[in-house]
Write a structure and sequence with these properties.
152 residues; mainly alpha; 7 helices; 69% helix; globular
Amino acid sequence: MSTIGSYLKKHTEALVKDVGIEPACQLTGKSKATLGRYYSDHEEHADRFMPIDAVAALEEAAAYPHVTGALAELQGIGLNFNSERRNTERSGGVNSDVIALSQRFAMLMAEYQQSIEDGVITVNEAKRLLRETTQLQQVLIDMKLHLEEETG
């Protein structure tokens, strides 16, 4: 199987597991076996990929657009995904951002310390670190926007 195919299958699996296998079956109208074939790395399923309408339905229910993100990365495109759905904008400007940045960085370091404690960072620990890194990145983006507002 190609490297790209393997990469897409791993992200397809992450998408299905993010939503949950039973809800994924309901959302796509596909069986567990069919969904499993879409992310199977066995040679007989190497050319099977999830239809784009099924990807769209699952990504709407997922916490993150795993397959869309993978496709963008393969093309060298960065996505700006905002998983926070705030009712109101956070006020306070740059000062508030600096505090949020410090707090997020502390959370990232705490997660890292816990992950590296046994000398090995597992896949789940890496995913938690990635999630914290993404949250830290969002604070930096907010800070950048506030700084741009202040400079006109």
